[in-house]
Amino acid sequence: MEGKVIAITGGASGIGLSLAKLLAQRGAKLSIADVAQENLDKAASTLKELVAGPDHILTSKCDVRQLSQVQDWLKATVDKFGKVDGAANLAGVFGKSSIEDLEEDLWDFVIGVNLTGVMHCLKAELKLMGKGASIVNAASISGLRGQAGSGAYCASKHGVVALTRVAAVESGSKGIRVNAVAPGYIDTPMLDQAEALAAKGALEQSVVSMPIARRADPEEVAKVIAFLLGDESSFVTGAIYSVDGGWNV
Ligand SMILES: NC(=O)c1ccc[n+]([C@@H]2O[C@H](COP(=O)([O-])OP(=O)(O)OC[C@H]3O[C@@H](n4cnc5c(N)ncnc54)[C@H](O)[C@@H]3O)[C@@H](O)[C@H]2O)c1
């Protein structure tokens, strides 16, 4: 990662922040985008302590639902660092509702951030990137199977799987790799939110039935994303890496 420029959406919290910390320690230059200004400021001060040089970090407020904001953020990244070697498109939101009761607003919000947002990022990133670049998207176990009460979320993550595969097919000849991670239960603010919306004890019951019967630390996902961003995964593209403790076996 030494000297590589990596752009991360959703980098102010959870898996994105954990990835940013890991890559900072490995010598990367980071451009972090997030819609949450307060968390972005906190992340900036934490990451400034970890990056190799005082000038190795850029943080930008950006709503991935807006293509122009994504383009402006990536332009600012290239203006500052001169290139983009890798991107992790991790910004995401959760929403809970049965399909019968699904409100249009919730559908638009979840699809807008999780699916349209990833499309905006891919569209802008692929234009800027060249040979040797690598992109990792956040899918989910919900992108690989149906889960009750998660129609919008599952649809958005199945869409991310599809976009990842199409982008990999379209970009292989340019030397750009595109993969996704499909996390299971990862201890982040999003999981806290999902647990609060679920029936009491339901999430814990599901956790104990998994082959590795625990929630993961976000760093356990960050390490897989770092592998996919780096040169050690040079022949891996179009892959959806489950990081779910064997839940989807
Ligand atoms: N935590 C889990 O158990 C889990 C499981 C499977 C998949 N995922 C996926 O991993 C990714 C990261 O999730 P997390 O658990 O770290 O969640 P998180 O809530 O901790 O972080 C998500 C970040 O995305 C940002 N964000 C939300 N909307 C945005 C927008 N419109 N534009 C820019 N940024 C926006 C939030 O401000 C937040 O900082 C998400 O895509 C999520 O769907 C998480």
UniProtKB/TrEMBL annotation:
Superkingdom of origin: Eukaryota
Keywords of this entry: NAD, NADP, Oxidoreductase
Protein's name according to its UniProt entry: Ketoreductase domain-containing protein
Ketoreductase domain mapped to chain residues: 4-189
Pfam families linked to this entry: adh_short_C2
UniProt GO MF annotations: oxidoreductase activity
Protein family membership: Belongs to the short-chain dehydrogenases/reductases (SDR) family.
InterPro entries in alphabetical order: KR_dom (IPR057326), NAD(P)-bd_dom_sf (IPR036291), Sc_DH/Rdtase_CS (IPR020904), SDR_fam (IPR002347)
Signal peptide: none
